[in-house]
């Protein structure tokens, strides 16, 4: 019988639910421990040092809940803190930027990729670098005409416009994704992308898929919407297969052992117990608000949300 893996997934708030939903729908043999850092949302105006510290605290907590793999379901943390977290923890981690950049390269038709994200992600230029790395590592457009033009050096493939959208996350966290206010703000943010003639738009924040209907309404059907969560699921599936193969050959190592920082990791058997569950939810802020907004956005019941205090 195939082992049911425990995935630790975290975001600044409810945005990571978009990634969680994709994982649960496509990978049936996983459980997810979700952490929303709602007491410190939004992350988009945080410093790199703060994001690293937050990440250390959260990853330590998730490992203590039995996580065998960490999904950093936050583009801001993926763009800034993830490289440091990978150095400090001996556990597999998947971020949003690299998978999202690869998917954008594959799906663009004209090579003119746009990005909407938090201001911190935009300033990091992580997606611009990610697109360049994806091309260097062999990712190519599915569109034959663009692929040929790029291979002949006649057409560039790059992020031509990146737009910070600082008001999107607070709107979504407040449950206002489908409001008139959200539509008005989205029109302002998306205008420069329309002017730049982007043909593919990366949703560079896991909150933004909740605004996809509004974004499609403004940009039109000709612009391909890139949700990095789809590529994250593919990468996660491959990683889990590799973990299974290593265990079968007896070369597992100590991938679940964190360095001694932040909270001490509790034995997973004590945390998970013997009850059957698919998802567990933890937040640093108001559990009731998370449950209310999460139920609205997912249109599925979130029954129990536990509050935990991390850091100071």
Automatic annotation (TrEMBL):
<feature type="binding site">
    <location>
        <begin position="11"/>
        <end position="12"/>
    </location>
    <ligand>
        <name>substrate</name>
    </ligand>
</feature>
<comment type="function">
    <text>Provides the (R)-glutamate required for cell wall biosynthesis.</text>
</comment>
<feature type="active site" description="Proton donor/acceptor">
    <location>
        <position position="74"/>
    </location>
</feature>
<feature type="binding site">
    <location>
        <begin position="206"/>
        <end position="207"/>
    </location>
    <ligand>
        <name>substrate</name>
    </ligand>
</feature>
<dbReference type="GO" id="GO:0009252">
    <property type="term" value="P:peptidoglycan biosynthetic process"/>
</dbReference>
<feature type="active site" description="Proton donor/acceptor">
    <location>
        <position position="205"/>
    </location>
</feature>
<dbReference type="InterPro" id="IPR033134">
    <property type="entry name" value="Asp/Glu_racemase_AS_2"/>
</dbReference>
<dbReference type="InterPro" id="IPR018187">
    <property type="entry name" value="Asp/Glu_racemase_AS_1"/>
</dbReference>
<comment type="similarity">
    <text>Belongs to the aspartate/glutamate racemases family.</text>
</comment>
<keyword id="KW-0961">Cell wall biogenesis/degradation</keyword>
<keyword id="KW-0133">Cell shape</keyword>
<dbReference type="InterPro" id="IPR001920">
    <property type="entry name" value="Asp/Glu_race"/>
</dbReference>
<dbReference type="InterPro" id="IPR004391">
    <property type="entry name" value="Glu_race"/>
</dbReference>
<dbReference type="Pfam" id="PF01177">
    <property type="entry name" value="Asp_Glu_race"/>
</dbReference>
<dbReference type="GO" id="GO:0071555">
    <property type="term" value="P:cell wall organization"/>
</dbReference>
<feature type="binding site">
    <location>
        <begin position="43"/>
        <end position="44"/>
    </location>
    <ligand>
        <name>substrate</name>
    </ligand>
</feature>
<dbReference type="InterPro" id="IPR015942">
    <property type="entry name" value="Asp/Glu/hydantoin_racemase"/>
</dbReference>
<feature type="binding site">
    <location>
        <begin position="75"/>
        <end position="76"/>
    </location>
    <ligand>
        <name>substrate</name>
    </ligand>
</feature>
<protein>
    <recommendedName>
        <fullName>Glutamate racemase</fullName>
        <ecNumber>5.1.1.3</ecNumber>
    </recommendedName>
</protein>
<keyword id="KW-0573">Peptidoglycan synthesis</keyword>
<keyword id="KW-0413">Isomerase</keyword>
<comment type="pathway">
    <text>Cell wall biogenesis; peptidoglycan biosynthesis.</text>
</comment>
<dbReference type="GO" id="GO:0008881">
    <property type="term" value="F:glutamate racemase activity"/>
</dbReference>
<dbReference type="GO" id="GO:0008360">
    <property type="term" value="P:regulation of cell shape"/>
</dbReference>
């Amino acid at each position: 019988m195939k082992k049911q893996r425990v995935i630790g997934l975290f975001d600044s708030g409810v945005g990571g639910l978009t990634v969680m939903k994709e994982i649960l729908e496509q990978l049936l043999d996983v459980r997810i421990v979700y952490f929303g850092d709602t007491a410190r949302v939004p992350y988009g105006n945080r410093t790199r040092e703060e994001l690293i510290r937050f990440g250390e605290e959260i990853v330590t907590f998730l490992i203590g809940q039995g996580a065998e793999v960490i999904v950093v379901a936050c583009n801001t943390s993926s763009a800034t803190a993830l490289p440091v977290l990978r150095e400090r923890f001996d556990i597999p981690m998947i971020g949003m930027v690299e998978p999202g950049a690869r998917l954008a390269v594959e799906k663009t038709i004209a090579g003119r990729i746009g990005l909407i994200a938090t201001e911190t992600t935009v300033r990091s230029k992580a997606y611009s670098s990610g697109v360049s790395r994806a091309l260097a590592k062999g990712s190519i457009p599915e569109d034959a005409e663009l692929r040929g033009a790029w291979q002949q050096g006649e057409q560039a493939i790059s992020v031509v416009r990146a737009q910070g959208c600082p008001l999107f996350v607070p709107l979504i966290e407040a449950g206002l994704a489908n409001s008139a206010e959200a539509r008005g703000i989205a029109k302002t943010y998306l205008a420069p992308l329309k002017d730049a003639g982007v043909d593919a738009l990366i949703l560079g924040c896991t909150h933004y898929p909740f605004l996809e209907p509004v974004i499609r309404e403004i940009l039109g059907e000709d612009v391909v919407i890139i949700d990095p969560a789809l590529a994250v699921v593919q990468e996660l599936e491959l990683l889990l297969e590799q973990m299974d193969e290593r265990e079968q050959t007896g070369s597992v190592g100590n991938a679940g052992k964190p360095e001694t920082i932040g909270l001490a990791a509790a034995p997973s058997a004590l945390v998970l117990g013997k009850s059957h569950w698919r998802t567990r939810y933890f937040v640093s802020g108001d559990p009731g608000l998370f449950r209310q907004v999460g139920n609205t956005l997912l249109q599925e019941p979130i029954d129990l949300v536990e509050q935990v205090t991390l850091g100071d």
